[in-house]
Structures are given as C-alpha cells and as structure tokens.
Amino acid sequence: QVQLVESGGGLVQPGGSLRLSCAASGSIFSVNAMDWFRQAPGKERELVATITNRGTTSYVDSVRGRFTISRDNAKNTVYLQMNSLKPEDTAVYLCHVVTFTATYWGQGTQVTVSA
Questions:
Q1: d(Cα 44, Cα 56) in Å, to the nearest integer?
Q2: Residue 40 CB neighbours (<10 A)
Q3: Separation of alpha carbons 59 and 8, rounded Å
Q4: Which residues of 16-63 form beta strands (DSSP E)?
Q5: Residue 20, phi then psi, degrees to nearest 5
Q6: In which order are the strands placed within the sheet that holds 67-72?
Q7: 14 Cβ partners below 8 Å, 6+ apart?
C-alpha cells in the first residue's frame, strides 16, 4: 500500500522560508508527475507546483519566483522550497503523486504565515 508522508509545515513570519517534503513509501512504480496543491479555508484546492519525471517544472503565477519544486527519484520524494512567504500563502499543503496507473494524495501539512 502506498503512503505519502509530508513534513516541514509550521508557523512562519511574512518574508520567511519553509521547506516541505513528501516521501512516498510502499509499492509505487513508474512515478510520472509529482505535485503540490494547497487549500485555504473557504477556498478551492489549488495546484501550486508540478514536476514531471523529466524534471520539467511549472508553477501557479502567485508563487513563481518564490517557490521551487524539486524531486529525488531514487527516494520517491518531492520537495517544495518556499521563500518570501506571504500571509496569503497560508493553507494546508498537500502532496500529490501521479503514476501511469494511479494517483495518490498525502494527508496535508499546515503552513501558516503570520506576524
């Protein structure tokens, strides 16, 4: 059974940084894209960043230039480095993994940006 375990969330002041990690365990094969989504209270879930198995990345406009997604294929782990954080980045961040046969979600990690 595949599990995605996220870590790295927390409380940070505006302008600060956090690094999220998501490690996939279990029998997971042929990982294609790995993504980070976020969901703030009262808002729809939003795709924040994607990285393909070839390393191609894409970002939502609101985080481009501040966030960096990366992955370690050998460890089936995806990271999200978040710099220059703003209060509007506050949300639950969820890891999402796409294989050729299935998709998986993590449980989410809370990121709060507040003075």
A1: 25
A2: 14
A3: 20
A4: 18-25, 31-39, 46-51, 57-59
A5: -95, 145
A6: 3-7, 18-25, 77-82, 67-72
A7: 85, 86, 87, 113, 114, 115
Kindly report the length of the chain: 115
Residue 80 CA to residue 66 CA, distance in Å, equals 10
* Amino acid present at 102: A
Residue 35: how many other CB atoms lie within 10 Å: 22
Q: pLDDT per residue over 89-114, tens digit each?
A: 999 999 999 988 899 999 999 999 99
- What's the mean pLDDT in 30-34? 86
**Longest CA span, the chain:** 43
> Would you call 85 helix, strand, or coil by DSSP?
coil
- Bridge partner residues of 69 (DSSP): 80
